[in-house]
Design a protein that fits this description.
Elements: E1 5-7, E2 10-12, H1 14-24, H2 26-38, H3 49-61, E3 66-70, E4 76-84, E5 88-94, E6 112-114, E7 117-119, H4 123-141, E8 149-156, H5 167-172, E9 180-183, E10 192-197, E11 199-208, H6 223-238, E12 244-245, E13 256-265, E14 275-284, H7 290-306, E15 312-321, E16 324-325, H8 331-344, E17 349-353, H9 359-364, E18 369-371, E19 386-388, H10 390-406
Parallel strand pairs: 5-8, 5-9, 9-18, 10-17
Antiparallel strand pairs: 1-2, 3-4, 4-8, 6-7, 7-19, 10-16, 11-14, 11-15, 12-13, 13-14
């Protein structure tokens, strides 16, 4: 049976109703975003409880129950459920922001609206997407029982500093269970969907030599020269551009990268360094493994040891998160593509990220996750951070359509390329 609904006395489909809702509630959405930005939630220390009060107040206005969870005092996470049954689609937007830095032309916590844009710390990362999410929750609440599935909306803490008190806490405490997750925090527009991330491998390689007086270096073994030879072996294999490894390739990703983050050794001029530490940040593509990279690094270090340029070495993993890819034919990506195509007439592009987001944490807990958000490229963490006001409506509508598609409410979404799109993404 075809699902139909009444909105303001008119029989219409979900797509039309979503577009009408966001248009009618534009001023309310802008006011909500301004209120969120006015809450100073710079992390550290976070103080996300301030934004949480705004979130819960808005949800209460629409009769949406919510629950607050704190990983630490003041580090408040808000979860709200709209709908019932499967699938459960989790959308976590974060409420913390980075420090303001220099270069602002106005108070970053007193948002300014000018020429179709809103300016303020966090408007793009991530309080704009949070506003679209909350408005969608308010829309769906009116029609509980008329659609299949559950929207689990999250306003989470601590994303900018590792998510220990935010999503990490919620997952470890088993407070979140979902079939799919959409993380609205990429800023790459509705047409570019992050469908995978490189692996993160932070490695510390320490070379041990023998300390001696600086005037008689032949009596010691300089660990700094050992580190030099180790790095030379890396350069010999990967060329002068040690940052990239052209041998590795994946259609969605740039090549594996190696960042020489730190070389640390020695104390003063007149002492031969007895120890030198090299720290590497390796972002490797799917298909490569942590084990293979560690074996390669140990091989380079062993060559240095065999030439008696050091007395010993140690390779230690400081941090590791494996890569992941959500396959292009997954229901999650199919739903997002259908939503974007229905509203704009355009197809999405799957991309892979070199950085790490909370998608990895969700994947590790068995929840398929993608990154997908408003268009705010080159705005996150910048002075005079801005967001086009039209993105509140655009992302809210397509997010709603994707949720409905995941719940197999397909007859409620137009096939083909009809559109009520309000304009180009900025």
């Amino acid at each position: 049976m075809k699902l139909r609904m009444t909105y303001n006395g008119t029989d219409m489909k979900w797509q039309e109703a979503l577009a009408a809702w966001f248009t009618q509630h534009t001023e309310e959405g802008v006011a909500l975003l301004r209120d969120l930005v006015r809450q100073d939630t710079v992390n550290p220390p976070g103080n996300e409880y301030r934004a949480a009060e705004v979130v819960t107040g808005y949800l209460q206005r629409y009769g949406i129950p919510s629950t607050c969870y704190e990983g630490a005092p003041g580090r408040t996470n808000v979860l709200a459920r709209i709908g019932d049954g499967a699938p459960v689609v989790f959308v976590p937007a974060h409420t913390d922001v980075v420090p303001v830095g220099d270069g602002w032309t106005h108070d970053p916590f007193d948002p300014v609206v000018r020429d179709g844009f809103i300016y303020g710390r966090g408007v793009a990362d991530d309080k704009g997407p949070l506003t679209s999410l909350l408005m969608l929750a308010a829309f769906l609440k009116q029609y509980e029982g008329a659609f299949r599935g559950t929207l689990l909306a999250g306003a989470v803490a601590d994303e900018e500093c590792g998510s220990t008190y935010g999503l990490g806490y919620l997952l470890e405490q088993k407070l979140v269970s979902a079939d799919y997750a959409i993380v609205p925090d990429t800023g790459a527009s509705i047409y570019r969907v992050s469908c995978g991330e490189k692996g993160l491998l932070h490695v510390e390689v320490t070379f041990t030599g023998a300390q001696a007086h600086g005037s008689t270096p032949e009596q010691g073994c300089n660990a700094a020269w050992a580190a030099w030879e180790f790095l030379a072996a890396l350069r010999a294999e990967f060329g002068d551009q040690i940052g990239y490894c052209p041998a590795s390739a994946h259609a969605w990703f740039t090549p594996t990268s190696i960042n020489l983050a730190q070389v640390q050794g020695g104390e003063v001029y007149n002492i031969v360094p007895g120890q030198c530490r090299v720290r590497l940040d390796i972002r490797y593509v799917p298909g490569e493994t942590q084990e293979a990279w560690l074996a390669r690094l140990r091989g380079y270090a062993q060559q240095v040891r065999d030439r008696q340029q050091c007395r010993g070495f140690d390779v230690r993993v400081a941090a590791h998160m494996p890569p992941y890819v959500v396959e292009a034919d997954s229901p999650l990506i199919t739903a997002v593509d259908k939503a974007v195509r229905a509203f704009t007439g355009r197809r999405i592009e799957c991309v892979g990220m070199s950085g790490t987001t909370v998608c990895k944490q969700l994947i590790q807990h068995g929840i398929p996750a993608i990154g997908w958000s408003q268009d705010s490229q080159h705005q996150a963490h910048m002075a005079n951070e801005r967001l086009a006001l039209s993105e509140l409506r655009t992302f809210g509508v397509v997010l709603g359509l994707a949720f409905l598609a995941l719940g197999n409410n397909l007859e409620a979404i137009r096939d083909g390329c009809t559109s009520e799109y309000s304009g180009d993404s900025h």
